[in-house]
Amino acid sequence: MRTLSPLPDAMPGMEQMCDDAHGGSVFRSILDRVGDTWSLLVMGMLQPGPMRFTELLRSVPGISRRMLTLTLRQLERDGLVARSAFAENPPRVEYRVTPLGETITGPVLALALWVNEHRVQIEENRAAYDAELGASKISGTAALTR
């Protein structure tokens, strides 16, 4: 099992990065953006190259048309994705990862690989927890007072 190496001493800790005096609200909003389900999936799908909206819609399982639109707008606002409109008939719009967005694709793909590598173990942990929680409810004990 791999472990994360400790942060260098010069690097600020999580507490400092989240502190409002150091731009914490912006920090948290960016983490919220890149950490949300749809943003990670859209960024991952765009990694190989530009895609049209309908291609993305078909490629991202479970996303609605509206959620894809909102996600793309938010990623574009943050400068992680760029939208290019072509004056053709019918009009064509493509989305691509920007150079700034490319700097996060490594960590995003690493996170995706971690999820894939540990998915079965996490599913087993969830099932065991849910079974224990269910047994506690049946026997009348407080399940969350462990």
Features of the shown structure:
146 residues; mainly alpha; Arc Repressor Mutant, subunit A; globular
How would you summarize the topology of this molecule?
Elements: H1 14-18, H2 24-35, H3 37-46, E1 51-52, H4 53-59, H5 65-77, E2 81-86, E3 92-97, H6 99-139
Antiparallel strand pairs: 1-3, 2-3
| Major beta-sheet overview | 3 strands, antiparallel
CATH class category name: Mainly Alpha
CATH architecture title: Orthogonal Bundle
How are the strands of the biggest sheet laid out side by side? 1-3-2
* Straight-line N-to-C gap: 27 Å
Q: Helicity range of the residues?
A: 55-70%
CATH topology: Arc Repressor Mutant, subunit A
* Integer average pLDDT: 82
Going by helix content, strand content and strand pairing, the class is: mainly alpha
Total of domains: 1
CATH superfamily: Winged helix-like DNA-binding domain superfamily/Winged helix DNA-binding domain
Number of helices: 6
Computed CA radius of gyration, to the nearest angstrom: 20 Å
Shape: globular
Classify the beta-strand content into a percent band: 5-15%
